[in-house]
Design a protein that fits this description.
The chain has six helices and no strands. By secondary structure, it is mostly helical. It has a domain of about 120 residues.
């Protein structure tokens, strides 16, 4: 016997009763001082730069306060300084691991991949992946996609590579110049030694 749609209480032409999870489909606004959420490439650069400046500022203040206090302890001052700097940089590492994890979540990857930072050579490839890898276009298993970058985030994110290149140049150029000067001194010493040897043979 055929059952009617009325008896079953269902209509095959009705739309499904279950609706998509709006929270998963909608994007969200990332917060810089947060441990959760996804961030894209430009925000990763901007947040990293902001954290760097804040950390350098705090380390400078702590160093100005602690170094004079520790310096008067003789031989123990070096050990105490290492311990203090270690305590300072532990939260620094934690902060950058959190930023990298949020970037990995945007790439739909587990945060455990941040441990690759400790692997030589591979950490370089991993860093490039964080910088250039495109994130998931929509929601993934780690949450909804972040909103579009703000003007301030774009400016900071674009300035970050320039600052990094400037810092590297400030370190590399003097080192290269020192290498050139040493090479010239060694070459000059070799020429003088060779000339003395020739003079000795003539005598």
């Amino acid at each position: 016997m055929r059952m009617s749609n009325e008896s079953t209480g269902s209509n095959p032409y009705e739309s499904p009763q279950t609706s998509p999870n709006i929270e998963q489909l909608a994007d969200y606004k990332p917060v810089i001082f947060s441990t959760k959420g996804r961030i894209g490439r430009l925000r990763y650069l901007a947040y990293s730069m902001i954290y760097n400046f804040l950390i350098m500022f705090l380390v400078g203040i702590l160093s100005a306060i602690l170094i004079p206090m520790i310096a008067g302890n003789g031989e123990e001052s070096g050990v105490m300084m290492v311990m203090v700097m270690g305590l300072i940089y532990l939260p620094v590492f934690a902060i950058f691991f959190i930023v990298a994890r949020r970037r990995l979540h945007d790439l739909d990857r587990t945060g455990w991949l941040t441990l690759l930072m400790f692997v030589p050579l591979i950490n370089i490839i991993f860093g490039l992946y964080l910088l250039f890898g495109p994130g998931s276009p929509g929601a993934n298993k780690y949450g909804p996609a972040p909103q579009a970058n703000t003007a301030l985030e774009i400016i900071i994110g674009l300035i970050a590579p320039i600052v990094i290149i400037g810092i590297l140049a400030a370190i590399a150029i003097p080192s290269y110049q020192e290498y050139v000067d040493r090479a010239q001194v060694i070459e000059q010493q070799a020429q003088e030694a060779q000339q003395r040897a020739l003079d000795a043979q003539r005598q």
